[in-house]
Structure formats: C-alpha cells, structure tokens
Design a protein that fits this description.
Elements lengths: L1 H33 L2 H6 L9 E8 L7 E3 L2 E7 L8 E6 L8 E2 L3 E3 L5 E4 L4 E6 L10 E8 L6 H8 L3 H32 L5 H11 L4 H19 L6 H25 L3 H9 L4 H12 L1 H17 L2 H6 L9 H11 L4 H31 L6
Antiparallel strand pairs: 1-9, 2-3, 3-8, 4-5, 4-9, 6-7, 7-8
Helix pairs in contact: 1-13, 3-13, 4-7, 4-10, 4-12, 5-7, 7-10, 10-13, 12-13
Length: about 375
Amino acid sequence: MKKKNLSSIFSQLLLLFFVIIWIIPTFGLFISSLRDKDLLAISGWWTALTTTKVNEIHRMSGMEDQIKVDDYFIIKGKLFETNSGKKIQNFGITSKRIDEYVVGEIAIFKDKSEVTVDEVGNYIWKSKTEFTKKKGKRLFISVLSPPAFTFDNYREVLFKEGIGRAFINTAAVALPSTIIPLIICSFFAYALTWMKFFGRDTLLAIIIASLVVPLQMSLIPILTIYNDFGALFGVAAKSYPGVWMAHTGFGLASTTFLLRNFIKSLPSEMMEAAKVDGASHYDIFLKIIIPLSIPAFASIFILQFLWCWNDLLVGLVFLDQVPSEIILTAKLKELLGSRGENWEILTTGAFVSMTVPLFIFFALQKYFIRGLLAGSVKG
C-alpha cells in the first residue's frame, strides 16, 4: 500500500509539473500582451508586478507656451500625464549623460537657459532671452515606473494591424478544412471496418503508408496540378476551395486511421442485430455508429482543427498574401519581419491566435482522452 501511495503521489506530482510547464509560457504571453510597450521592451513578464527603472526621452514645449516673469522668459509643463505614478530619479540634457542631475538640481544648456525638474515630471525652463524655436529641447530622464497594464495593444492589433481580418480568414480556412475531412473519413472508416469489398485491406495499407509521406514533398506538385486545373476551367488555384481541398487531402489519412480504430472497437453483435432487424449500412451508420462515436469525432475534430488553425506552410502556398486571404500565422510572420522590435504587437497577436484553439480544447476536453484511447485495447 505504501508503494502504491508513493507511486500515486509521484505520478500526480509529475503530472502537475508538466501542467505547470505547459501553462507558464501561455500565462507569460498573456501578461506580456497586457503590459505597457515601454516596460515590455526592457523587462520580462515576471517583473510585471514590480517597479521598473526606465530611461525615457521627452521634449519640452516650444516658444508658443512661454510667459514673461520679471526679467525671465519661462516655459512650464509636464512630462507625464496626471496620476501616472512615475517618479523621476535623475535627468540629463544630453544623451551621453542621462543621469547627470538629480531631481531639483538646475541644468544649464549651452544657450545659458536653465531647467529644473521635480519628482513627478513638472519642469520649469527659463531663459533671460526670448525663446524663438517652435520645438523645445529634449530631456533624458531615469524613471521608476509602476506596474502598468493596458488594452491598447489589443486595440492596435485588432483594428490597426489587420489581425482581426486575418482572424476571420483563418476561421474561414480552419472550419471547412476540419468539417469536410471529418465527414469524408466517417464514411470511409465505416466502410473499411464493417463493409466487405475487394481490395479493402490494400486500401487500408495505402492509407497507413500515406501517413509517412512528408507534407512538404507534395506541396509543389499539388499546387502545379491545381494551376493546371485552374487554367483549364478559368478558376484561380490559390483560393479558399483550394486550401480546403489541400487540408482535406493532407488530413484524411490520419483522421480515417484514428476513426477506424475506434469504430472497430464497437461490439460486432450490435451490427449483426441491426442487420437481422433489416437495417441497411446507411441505417447502421446513422443510428448506431455516429451516436457511439461522439468521443472519437470530438478528438479528431480537435486535432484537425488545431493543425489547420496553426498551419503556416499550406496557407502560404495555397493562398495569396493579400488582406482578404492572409491567415493569422502568415500575418504574425509578416509582423515579425516588419515590426520585429515591437514586442507588444507580437505577443498580443500570438495570444489572439491562441484563444480559439484553447476554447475548442477546453470545450471538448472531456471527449478528447476517451476518443484517443478508445480502440487502443480490446475488451
């Protein structure tokens, strides 16, 4: 009993360890997607709840805001928004020495004008001669910035970066590319299991053999065939129907193999009793096989949908990279190339792409393990 208890505790701890390892990157991505872009650029997500030291550059107001007090021309202003929570430690007037002065000291520019800055970002810039430039001088400051979270990253990604449109395009690709092979493989798997016809075993062997064919080897030949058919019938090869057929073809072998294993585990006595009662293969399939195969359909739906949703290669080959067709993974790749320095855009876009697969998985998880394990053992 002690050995069993120790083994059970060890198994549970090991499972908990793997769950935590799986959750941490997702949690980190979510936290990063909500952080202020300046903080995200200089610190990791695990520092999101701590105060961070940030170096910033601000420009003071120009000549339009000056007022004359006694013998001085004065410009007053704020470097931060009200109640920003930021506190200045040091500041400088050149990029080479950004921490030359502490808060409250007077910094003197080359033109003999003077500036003082307080802890919350209020500055007073004064000169004995009139200010003549529309733009003020720059201040380099070292700031202690409190934790900051914002939804601005999601607004920019969904409404400015084109991720929202790519999200819809990906759904238009993934849903038909999941449902079509699921419908086809259900009939196919039943036929391979309970119908007797010439060449059934050979056909099953071909399906199993096709599982080892690399996807990358067949992309270009299939696209060439698509182009030939498209030219013959005047239809564009790179289109949604084209990518649906591609995903259907690439996923049909694995979905058929998994579903056949499940259907084969169902008691043959039920099929024989149904035949005795006069049921046809069509009746058996609709009234017996489908209701009993819900766990298998759910697990296959999850696997196929996740593959189609996260796919990049097939989408790049069989769709044009235009706003009306570009998918989410291709859009993220495009952002990585053109906006590689903007981590807030990439982390937010990546988390948006994860939301639907996570929802699908958690919604159907109770069927997932049952569907995968069903048919793996007899009895």
